[in-house]
Amino acid sequence: MAADFYGYEALLPEKEHKILLKARAFLRDEVEPLVNENWAAGTFPQELLPKFRNIGLGGLPYEGYGEHRPRTSSLLTGMLAMEMTRIDASVATFFGVHNGLAMYSIYAGGSQEQRDRWLPEMATMDKIGAFAMTEPLGGSDVAAGMRTTAKRDGESWVLNGAKRWIGNATFADYVVVWARDVEDNNVRGFVVEKGTPGFSPVKIENKIAFRIVENAEITLAGVRVPEANRLQGVNSFRDVANILRATRSGVAWQALGLMIGAYELALGYAKERKQFGRPIARFQLVQDLLVKSLGNITASWGMLVQLARRQDAGIFKEEHSALAKAFVTSRMREVVAWSREIFGGNGIVLDYDIARFFADAEAIYSFEGTREMNTLIVGKAITGQSAFV
């Protein structure tokens, strides 16, 4: 890989490296040819679902579930997110929502019975998951401002409210819905199964980024969920924050993948595009943009390697993933802008791919905690003073 200037990929053990190479070939041969057409149309290529099942990437991080047992390393999980985003951020997000947010919510927040009930079919991708937290009137204030409610009624719970920007929700089999218990004001998680009465997802149209992801606005009107579908290990927002801590690092890996994809496109274009009788790769200012991009990639990759090591060592804290998300997504914004600049006018049409990377970067920059919110998490950790209002 042209962007792996310091040889980070070689840190993977041989068995895991083979999994990465298998995924790379699949993404190149099966996913990449479908991307631009579906991105332009704003549709998810459903024909990919059985192929995802066959490639055996589901359930990788979870011991006892999926094709690979025991669990694989956090470094491989991160590099797979990177590899997917290197091809397309929307497809990577579909997988991250299913394999990360939805499955990890059940794995970390569910009872053993719940894990055994839902995760095997999700690991084989026979069932697809979604994660519903963000609301139409709430974003960064979700911890205190969640408006979706849950009320206990005998052996069931009744959910009312709305969610927005929920990836995969238009076709997901299981949607993890977060709601505030009206009795004690604590946030709880529920697995709402497809077809449950009162659960209505509507696809959000007219997006300028992540156009392949089928984000939905969900209305919950008297949705009745059995107590058996309440995640038994989630009793407060602190439990939810522990889930987000782990998945936020995956978004940082996605940002790295987007950087790499944009850089590789720009590097290839610079070698082929000629002006004044020579490739623009020979121009000093073009080389400056490429080298700055490679520096951002290399620094971000190094940070994420160490983050993955801390995850596997069990010394991983919220502020570690927050710093990675804030830093890497900021560097990503620079790289996609510099890469698009190298394309000149060709950089604003889909034909050259870079426009898609440029647009998708804005979504990655915003979700899973804005730069400002993640900055305040790290700021509190290093100063001991909270600047949240």
Mean pLDDT: 91
User: Which overall shape is indicated by the principal axes computed on the Cα atoms?
Assistant: globular
> Approximately how much helix is present in the residues?
40-55%
Distance between the amino and carboxyl termini: 44 Å
| Low-confidence residue ranges | none
Rg to the nearest angstrom?
Answer: 21 Å
Q: Output the CATH topology of the largest domain.
A: Butyryl-CoA Dehydrogenase, subunit A, domain 3
Helix-strand layout with pairing:
Layout: H1 14-41, H2 48-55, H3 74-87, H4 89-109, H5 112-123, E1 129-132, H6 142-145, E2 149-153, E3 156-166, E4 174-181, E5 187-193, E6 199-203, E7 216-226, H7 237-272, E8 274-275, E9 278-279, H8 284-313, H9 318-343, H10 354-366, H11 371-383
Parallel strand pairs: 1-4, 2-4
Antiparallel strand pairs: 2-3, 3-7, 4-5, 6-7, 8-9
Helix pairs in contact: 1-3, 3-4, 3-7, 4-5, 4-7, 7-8, 7-9, 7-10, 8-9, 9-10, 9-11
